[in-house]
Write a structure and sequence with these properties.
Two copies of one chain form a homodimer. With about 450 residues, the first copy, chain A, is of the alpha+beta class. Chain A folds into three domains: about 250 residues, Bira Bifunctional Protein, Domain 2 (BirA Bifunctional Protein, domain 2, 2-Layer Sandwich); about 55 residues, no CATH class; about 90 residues, Anticodon-binding domain (Rossmann fold, 3-Layer(aba) Sandwich). Helices cover about 30% and strands about 30% of the residues of chain A. In chain A, helix 2 packs across helix 10. The first copy, chain A, starts with 6 loop residues before the first helix and ends with a helix. At the A-B interface, strand 2, helix 2, strand 3, strand 7 and helix 7 of A face strand 2, helix 2, strand 3, strand 7 and helix 7 of B.
Chain lengths: ~450, ~450
């Protein structure tokens, strides 16, 4: 088994099997935007549902939210994004090309983009023509648009660059309507947009992406303890989804890279083939920064009444924040394997059963007209209960390989014996073991093997 | 029971119980944008999952897709949106205010906005100052933004005004990777944006909304038959979710209102309290218009090889298209009821079990310290399996009412007898019937009552 597939191999599988396509491909694409195909959308939905189940449904202290992408622009003034969410850009005075300044100098973390930081490019020439470069100027990474029929400064709005602020501005609404006591969290899944100068590495850094964020509100003084608990909690989520522990690490942000709002931040990193260890989730202690800023800008208190101390306080916030698309890439790379089986190569995705796009494939041994009605009957039985696929093209061996390659945990084979004994064969993806099960008990048997997924 | 609640009653319930909040409310909001609170996000997710299950999982001929919101702008030139997706606007020559021309004249369908149509406003004065109005000028309804560091015409992009085009441009990718034969469909759920001049009626017409669309590709000549089948199919979906048949109607588009791409369009309409019958889903025969336009603009064939006729053909398309937010409003209004129970009023949402945000509420009879550990144990048992809520505040009667008001189908009460007999009471929302069930068999009993939801 290959230890880690190359990116080319993963990208090619994604395209060939309908996980991910380049957006608007027939028009030459558009940089930093991707579409999820029939299998990709299922994997993506399963990731989101697994996170929601673990975060909102199974916990007793977190509720959900779904805020709009376009918000009142004052939100982004208060959050600091209008002023500081920017990358330094330089222009070449000779050839007029534009570059991101921090890409012209060496930086510690290849795969990371640290926004809003000044960069010293003194003496660096244009990488294209060798000409002289301008001083770096800050370029805001928020996509700008106009709301209403008039395009002027009064109608400017932004596509949110993070989902977090939608939670902070709803703090009071959620507190009031769900009658929560500290500590409690608000979780959200949704699209965010960043006008990255250099998107890249497939879906690793997109201009349009999806975030899953929790803002967990705690009493000041308990924040450090809760931070530790969330780091552990989130690390366990990743390994619980089957990502190998040895491919993950926890990295403390240095004082230099710490955001202005953060008291402490820890990244969970995955060992990517193109970049080495890079962030897949950040867990930050944002203190009372955001609620404080919004209270100030909106001119109203965003506080919690603590009965014990008989005081109104501004809670501290622990924020576990991750991207769905990067998680998608992580589980694809981590689950990808190549094996020799009886002298033949098989490619498989050892995806966690909860994540697998297709749970069960129904495979008649052949297209023989006697088999087809029974195979269709089995498919009709399973379809309301599991995401299934029916495949009758080419040899049964080829079809097993096709299902292995997309991570389908179970195949159900209908053969000529089925016509006599009303039983089918279940074949498992990883072990390739086969068991014979009566159709009558098939749903139960599959449910047990899938662990309720 | 009130036949139909007023909008005020529904909006107030949404705000009070955390279904829907005004976006960026602490900053005075932003017109046409809404946030979904803890209960709203669950209801919305349940609507989307019910649609996906019926459309993608349970059918054998539809696969899913999730295309990006920002696409190559040539997509919108090909689709005609750059040229024709516009509303006529007029300015007052005296007071300089701007109006939507079609709102200054009477129109047939109050709640509908028919985009891209010319309007004759000859002789109509400014509704504000009585001054003279300019000729109508077309105002494009797509939100515009810029991709990359330079804001110029070469970097203009749009937020998609519909999800449909993301499907058409992926027709070939999906066809190739999923090896489909006609007829087959591609289904998609995702955000879309329209810069409406006059958003309104709560979440009925938003600037940011979510669509659920199917493009169903068929052999030309079979399109009329498939259109009929989809009209029936989609109507049944609405009634299957519990929406009352007498509140729905099917309305044929007149020749006047038919879009330029449509051979025939039928709307499913719901009887809204503020507007009378208005569209909740459109089912259009788009012919080969879209694939034809994209083939022309992209300069490549978008065809299907039909083995029977041994020819490459451009499929026809049947499009069932609906909005998640409008569906949300429909099921809320339709399920809202007020009843007298023993001289007291109760408000309830008779939501379909599959849609209810909370499936089960766990209610200890009181906060008595002997009850709490058992009640928590029951909650811990149920939480991994169902969306649950724990409520121990105020009288049990009040808590039943609170659950009725948010549509929770089942309440589980833990009382002092439970400490002796290890049994609890299940109370049903609509009938208010109560049955006693041992904790050991509780999960099974609830699962049965929820019908697998």
């Amino acid at each position: 088994m290959a230890d880690a597939p190359s990116m080319d191999v993963v990208v090619s599988l994604c395209k060939r099997r309908g996980f991910v396509f380049q957006s608007s491909e027939i028009y030459g694409g558009i940089g930093g935007f991707w579409d999820y195909g029939p299998l990709g959308v299922e994997l993506k939905n399963n990731i989101k549902q697994a996170w929601w189940r673990a975060t909102v449904q199974e916990r007793d202290d977190v509720v959900g939210l779904d805020a709009s992408i376009i918000m009142n622009p004052r939100v982004w003034q208060a959050s600091g994004h209008v002023d500081t969410f920017a990358d330094p850009m330089v222009d070449c005075k000779s050839c007029k090309r534009r570059f991101r300044a921090d890409e012209l100098v060496e930086h510690k973390h290849e795969a990371e983009s640290v926004h809003g930081q000044a960069v010293d490019i003194a003496g660096v020439p244009c990488p294209d023509c060798g000409g002289e470069l301008t001083e770096p100027r800050m370029f805001n990474l928020m996509f700008k648009t106009y709301v209403g029929p008039v395009e002027d400064s009064a109608s400017v709005a932004y596509l949110r660059p993070e989902t977090a602020q939608g939670i902070f501005v709803n703090f009071d609404n959620v507190l009031t309507t769900s009658r929560r006591k500290l500590p409690f969290g608000i979780a959200q899944i949704g699209k965010a947009f960043r006008n990255e100068i250099t998107p890249g590495n497939f879906i690793f850094r997109d201009r349009e992406f999806e975030q899953m964020e929790i803002e967990y509100f705690v009493l000041p003084g308990t924040d450090e303890e809760w931070h530790e608990r969330w780091i552990q909690e989130r690390f366990n989520w990743w390994t619980g989804l089957g990502v190998r522990k040895e491919k993950l690490r926890i990295r403390e942000h240095t004082e230099d890279e710490l955001s202005h709002y953060a008291k402490r931040t820890v990244d969970i990193e995955f060992d990517f083939p193109f970049a080495g260890f890079a962030e897949i989730e950040g867990i930050a202690n944002r203190t009372d920064f955001d609620l404080g800023r919004h209270a100030e800008h909106a001119g109203r208190e965003l506080k919690y009444f603590d009965e014990e101390s008989d005081q109104h306080i501004v809670p501290y916030v622990i924020e576990p924040s991750m991207g769905v698309d990067r998680c998608f890439l992580t589980v694809l790379i981590d689950s990808y394997a190549e094996e020799e089986v009886r002298g033949e190569k098989r490619t498989l995705l050892r995806l966690h059963k909860e994540l697998a796009p297709i749970k069960v494939a129904v495979l008649p041994l052949s297209r023989n007209e006697k088999l087809v009605p029974t195979a269709r009957r089995v498919w009709d039985l399973l379809r309301p209960r599991f995401m299934t696929q029916y495949d009758d093209a080419q040899s049964i061996g080829r079809r097993y390989r096709r299902q292995d390659e997309i991570g389908t945990p179970l195949c159900v084979t209908v053969d000529f014996d089925t016509l006599d004994d009303e039983a089918v064969t279940i074949r498992e993806r990883d072990s390739m073991e086969q068991v014979r099960v009566p159709i009558e008990g098939l749903v139960e048997a599959l449910r047990e093997k899938l662990g309720g997924a």
